[in-house]
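Q: Is it fine to ask for two folds in a single conversation?
A: Yes, each is treated on its own. Send the first.
Q: Here.
A: Result:
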Amino acid sequence: MGAPVTFVTGKGGVGKTTVATLMSREAFSRGERVLFISLYKDAQTDELLGIPADETTEEIFSSPKLGCDVSVITPSSALVNYLSAKRMGSIITRLIKTGLLDMVANIVPGMRELLVIGDIRAKAESGKWDRIIVDSPSTGHARSLFNVSESANAVARSGVIRKQGDAAREFLRNPHLSQVVVVTLDHAMPLSECREFIFNLEDELHMKIAAVILNKSRVMKTGNSYGIDKNFADIFVPLFAQAPITSESNKKKTLLSRFSFRKKLPTALEENIAFNETVSSCIVLGTGGVGKTTTAAAIALRAARSGKKVALLTIDPARRLGTALGLDDTASRESYVDAQSMEHLSAEKANFHIFQLDSTHEFLDLLKKTLSEAAYKDSQDNTFVSSISKMGIVNEFMAIEAMHRLATSKLYDLVVVDTPPSHHVFDFLEAPEALERMTQSNVYKTLVGAGTMASITTNMALNTIFRPLRGLVGTDLISDAVEFMRTLKDVEEVFAEHSREVVALLASPHTHYVGICNPTSASLEQVSALVRGMREREFRQCSVIVNGVDFTEPNDLDDLAIFATQLSAIDTPVTILTEHELDDPFEIVEAISENVSWDK
């Protein structure tokens, strides 16, 4: 723990938030002045950190649960803090008055990451705390956070943002100022992703890795490494194993008792994942680390091996789909294979098509198909276009476009979609409505010169809106942004039409949603909230899969039976799957696929 700022990250669901809070409590108990920073703002995080529900004005809270100070940083709050520190209160007032505060903080390429890192750096330099622990995003999104300088420098040729990008890079690369702790589980998929992430941190981002924590690890007790040696033999990072917490009731069962209890599985629970033959789209949801990608791959594989022609699309930025299916070329956008042999074939001969969303490529394809040749050429030279195509908001829009393309192609009997972690899944599902709200806003209409507004009036309005931003991101980016927004008007109708069709697809009785979780109480609560959120949005064809269940533990199954009974009240069946302790990810996919069936 040499550096004063520690970023704690890992694949979703591995316990990184728990580790970060425990590190904060430990440092505080040793007499250090500690600040715990969360990058999530929701009711669940507020409750975890002990932030008062009615307190909205204070930036720093004293948490009775952690003992130390707590701060929740969002891009908007970070922008306000930055402008306030620079005594630019008039800009804050203008941004709020024009409704552009959230837009600037979240939509300008690279801005959200730069603001967050800048706020963390400012707190570290204030001298108020000896140690700062940051509960960072999961590994897929952490890459964008730590690669902030490249994103910022790609769009801002001048202005404050360019300088702040360089400062952020130096802060993250200085081992005396910041470091990373990576949390993982000692199972095949989390270990594989952890290994890849470590190489990315060291070789590309040049950040210091203080340690890797193997959470819920049985290696100290059993001596079985579950692939730890395989993945970390050539990685020189301190490894720490934390054994799972077990209750006194978790006693060893005899073979006879295990066998007899399996025959008494509560009737509310199922062991097979059953789909109606009429299902043509399957969307898999859940937090990271619960087997979401693996389960999506298993569902698609079983359908393809049952004779269906299947498309499997992942829009999760972690891009673990290739690894799960044992494909060598995991970076490829498209793979066409025979479902039985998993051998690569031509697109025409293969019955299993696997797609990993490349939002940049999808975005440029859309522009190429929609714009005139001259307009498309101009967009290729547009700084804002090349940068915005890499942003999260475009990722959701392009995921909708990719799903639309596959579902309406008439080439497939089934389309399976592996979504981002549930923190972001509603961004994906609500992207069509978000696009419509944006195109109907006064700001957008002003940008594109909609209606009968004269050009001189439009230009005056634009100057009022964007004058505060030119000093931040530079005149070139603002000009490119306005030009792109006007160009986007030509794409708007096509994309809006596609979005409306996807809205109908998402609500169709032929679309089935599968929520994935593990047996922990927190995970069960999350998937329950997810299912209820789906039903509120009129997405009613939903089921739940609980991964990693110990079939020999009566108390666990009884608790899950109660959970299943509660969900049955809203017509949501619950399937439980045992944990597969296999080193090969594809073997796990095949094992789970044996539990999938398609009813006639």
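Q: Second one now.
A: Result:
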Amino acid sequence: MLIELRIRNFAVLEDLAMALEPGLSVVSGETGAGKSIVVNALEVLLGGRASSAVVRTGAARAIVEGVADIEGLAEVAAVLEELGMEADDHLVVFRREVRREGRSRAWVNGSPVTASVLRRIGSLLVDIHGQHEHQRLLSADFQREVLDAFGGCRELADRVAGAYRRAADLEHRLEELEERRRELASRADFIRFRLGEIRGAKVRPGEDEELRIEARRLANADLLARETLALQTLLHSGDEAVTDRLSRAAALLRRRSETDPALAPHAAALEDAYHRVADAAAELAAYGGAIDHDPARLEELQERQAVLQALMRKYGPTLAAVIETGEALARELDELETGALDAATLRGRLDRARAEWRSAAEDLSKRRRRAARSLSDRAQAIFPGLGLAGSRFVVEFEELPAPAAHGLERIRFLATMNPGFPPGPLARIASGGELSRVMLALKSVLAGIDDLPTLVFDEIDAGIGGVVAASVGERLVEVARARQVVAITHLARIAAHAATHFAVEKRTVDGAAATRLRRLDADERVREIARMLGGDPDSESSLSHARALLGSAAPEPPVETETDLQ
């Protein structure tokens, strides 16, 4: 539960702190004093939308901090452990800063987190029922969630949704596969023809370059033979051949090196050059003698080159592209031939997923219908005490024409506020005040089921008064027996039931509005109840009336301490 809330520079709130207790706490104050701003700040702290407009005039940033005790809340502890955080003494400290310039920032136990992390943890700790929250009651999704929470069907509903998503995914994949198969089937003959052309040519990587080199050699066979013979003659076998000259020069240097040893390396270099040139001449002679004058082979090569050129014009600018095209066509053909097997496998998996969804959805429907009868009975039992005597509450099931993620049917809450009239949709039947009380009745029913430790009601008393207000207060006390409840109210008959009473007061500081919050002691509380009753808080008759109201409400005794936080 929440044990502390501090708000600084948020709207008209300059510096406000609340030490919260178990049971029912109320916050009262004049209209416009800033009671609901406390709830708005709490929403921001728990991951709600943070606008720079909430920063108090003259301040650079708004800060909201809170401390929660999570002892016994295993789900919250599991989330913290998943995030790598620890809760010393079972305490979790939240902090949210909203800057006038720039983005907001958030921390949990000193570690920076995103707003989504705040929402995730906050959703397990606090349920805020704002001034317009009763409008959620008109949402089909919310109505279904209420019924599932009451009937203990959340886990089963998640299974139904999971099976539906799996089936939808498999159906989508099967449709894509079938579409692909139809596309390939329509061009299967074309694919086979093109693949046959490429495979029939028996193309080898690099073959085009090999053919080009061999064809050029054959086309220039006579020229190569003549020139290699001429070179061999020049180097070794002709008059004044290079080898003869190198031999004479080497011999001359070898003799002179006997006189000057410095010439010996040069003699050795010339001898090496002689052997190199002689070897080159021998290789040229062998090359020239091996040249094949084969016109038939040249024609064969040119024909093969023409085949490859035609393939490259058709399937790619290079021979490598032609080979890659052939591989891609082979894959497409294989995909077409094996697609039927894949489709059969997918159909089997889809059938199983649909069967799983159907089984879970039918089970969910049965459990929902049992829960609906009990929810209706228990909500209607609370209605008279909330000024809704004679009202009826019904949960209607409308079968859906096609499978859905949330089950077999659409769920609607129907009601009639007047005896003798048939139930109808809440949006047509109930006023805003009546919707608020229907919501309170449902929250009361869920109080013993939902494990959220803190409920916050912002002006749940809209549109009611008198005896009904007293009944709403009693109902809030009943809900507060199982959890912490904080109620923002302007009705004395509700405030009188609180165990702890805070008052919000607005004043002007340096020409700017500022709000402070005080925890009231017994005497201050009597004066505040007198004010809320519309009397003079200094009048003995008003104070006497307030004491009588407090006595009749008989709330749990408040802690007799004062907290002035301004």
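Q: Anything structural to flag on that second result?
A: Two points. The chain is about 55% helix and 20% strand. Residues 189-333 form one domain.
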